[in-house]
Amino acid sequence: MFAIKRELKLNNVETSLMRGNAGFKRLVYNYGLDLIQSSWDFEDIKASDSKRLDAIKKVFTQVTMHKPEYAWMRLYPSTVYQSAFIDLKKAFERWRKGISGFPKKKSKKKGDSFSVYKTAGIYPEKGKLPLAFTNRVVIKSGKEIKLPGLKTFRLKERIDFTCSSQTFTVSRTADKWFVAFMLDAEKLPPIIHPIEKIGVDLGVKVLATCSDGTKYDMPITTKTAKTKLGKLQWRNRSKVQGNKKLKIKASNNAKKYYTCLSRYHARIANIRQDTIQKMTTDLSHKAYVIRIEDLNVQGMIANQKLAQAVTNNCFYEIRRQLIYKQSPYGTKVELVDRWYPSSKMCSNCGHIQPMGLSERVYNCGKCNNIQDRDQNAANNLRDAPQGKIRLA
User: Fold this and answer.
1) Against a cut of 0.90, is the pTM above it?
2) Alpha-carbon span 311 to 305, nearest angstrom
3) Half-sphere exposure of 203 (CA within 13 A, CB side)
4) CA separation for the pair 175, 267 (Å, rounded)
5) Helix, strand, coil share of the chain (percent; to 5)
6) What is the secondary structure of 88-153 as a DSSP string?
7) Domain residue spans of the chain
8) Half-sphere exposure for 180 (CA within 13 Å, toward CB)
9) Whole-number pLDDT of residue 205
10) What is the Cα–Cα distance from 330 to 191, expressed in whole angstroms?
11) 172-176, 207-211, 348-352: lowest mean pLDDT where?
């Protein structure tokens, strides 16, 4: 399965509707989080997180929603609050398994999002569509999309084919709204890869160096955008930006500044994401086995001299994308042991010698092999022994 994401073309009324749905989802999510934490104070109650959340959902639908001050909740689709409880349940499952941290409260500052889905309809009559298709929305090719429980919205980019989906997730980045939905289809992986095995060395000076001689770098536009962002923040350093604790309201100019600031942050994130997506897709197209080093990213970020370069080059995101692209592109990602001396070892004769971070050229003291440091490391990753390798 793969997803499609498109930007919505909204007017002021539609934008207010989206913000209202996102606020409703945020309120329900925080409501459930507060109550489940309060329920832990009663030691006599022995129930799992899932059962506690089911009980909280009943209280919300049968008591809270019927209060006069919450009558506005009936203006929004019921699937919004139902999906909020589903998301909260998944968040606690991930926390219990140790995959992620403890669920945090939703905030406007971290963007708005909500999900809607079509519920199962009436059983179809004989000779009509089967039941499996009654709870799906048909999306026709063009620049319009119908969201269940809401209305038809315009898209900025057309959908080129007719498809169907059940769940739609609407999210906001800066002042732009997007809709994403999943398709029940699979991409056919390529049968033949031109390269059987490739080593990829992630670096600071260069984004990635491959054993076949290919180099990928982060575009200069990232640095330009970060410079403009710094200038914008410096020019508005004295602006009254508001403080809820001190009950100071943000000025209208401050609100405009927040919007402008979020656009710059979104632009930098988009440049990075576009570069990394293209790089990982290119690697997945041309190589069957992709070997990367199991880097200690948290330890590298702790180094003040490397922190900015490491976060800018998104080492973990590259690894994550290569792993999830294994299935659609028919590749195999392997991790080389963290302590394998790929940078200190000569790829020609296997001699190991100390190498400082400032040394960018590897000059072997045994066979006099002179090679670029990153290229030498990429060759060593490609030829690493099986004992130092594990599947990602």
Assistant:
1) no
2) 12
3) 25
4) 12
5) 45, 20, 35
6) HHHHHHHHHHTSS-------GGG--EEEEEPPP-SPPPTTS--GGGTT-EEE-SEEEEEPTTS-EE
7) 2-183, 195-391
8) 10
9) 84
10) 8
11) 348-352
